[in-house]
């Protein structure tokens, strides 16, 4: 079982506990991610592109910073903030459920972001 398969199995179990039963044969991973965010809220692991803040689980735009500097919300973890003490700390504080269906924000394949969150 791959890491992603394990995530999908855990997500299905957590949703079932909330009374949301999903047939994994009929629901694609992207749809499952979207439903999971609707029930449990967007992931704390976020990305930003062209001024928009994006949930790395469902890929929804969940905010923007077009009017000013990036909104480094308190508990979030940003992709590629490998040298950012705040994101490292926030990521360490996440439960397994909060990380489900999300990429590793500090993985070797993730490009390092020069920006860091202000403390
Ligand atoms: Zn989401
Ligand atoms: Zn950061």
Helices and strands in order:
Layout: H1 3-17, H2 29-40, E1 45-49, E2 52-55, E3 61-64, E4 77-78, H3 85-93, H4 96-99
Parallel strand pairs: 1-4
Antiparallel strand pairs: 1-2, 2-3
Helix pairs in contact: 1-2
Summarize the entry for a quick read.
With 119 residues, the protein is an alpha+beta fold.
Total beta-strand segments? 4
Spans of at least 5 consecutive residues with low confidence = none
> Could you estimate the helical fraction of the residues in percent?
25-40%
Overall pLDDT: 90
Rg is 15 Å
Strand order of the largest sheet: 3-2-1-4
Are any ligands bound, and if so which? zinc ion
Class from helix and strand fractions: alpha+beta
Q: Report how far apart the termini are.
A: 39 Å
How many domains in all?
Answer: 1
Main β-sheet description: 4 strands, mixed
Q: How much of the residues is beta strand, in percent?
A: 5-15%
- Please write the string of helix (H) and strand (E) elements: HHEEEEHH
Shape: globular
Number of helical stretches of at least 4 residues: 4
Question: How would you characterize the overall build of this protein?
Answer:
This protein has 119 residues and is an alpha+beta fold. The chain is 34% helix and 13% strand. It contains four helices and four strands; from the N terminus they run H-H-E-E-E-E-H-H. It has helices at residues 3-17, 29-40, 85-93, 96-99; strands spanning 45-49, 52-55, 61-64, 77-78. A hairpin with a 2-residue loop joins strand 1 and strand 2. It is globular and about 40 Å long. The structure holds zinc ion (2 copies). One zinc ion binds next to helix 3.
């Amino acid at each position: 079982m791959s890491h992603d398969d394990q995530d999908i199995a855990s997500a299905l179990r957590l949703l079932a506990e909330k009374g949301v039963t999903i047939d994994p044969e009929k629901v694609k991973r992207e749809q499952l991610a979207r439903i999971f965010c609707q029930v449990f809220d967007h992931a704390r692991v976020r990305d930003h592109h062209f001024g928009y803040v994006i949930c790395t689980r469902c890929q929804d735009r969940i905010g923007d910073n077009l009017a000013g500097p990036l909104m480094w919300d308190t508990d979030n973890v940003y992709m590629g903030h490998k040298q950012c003490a705040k994101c490292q700390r926030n990521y360490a504080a996440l439960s397994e459920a909060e990380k489900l269906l999300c990429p590793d924000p500090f993985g070797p394949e993730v490009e390092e972001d020069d920006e860091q969150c202000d403390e």
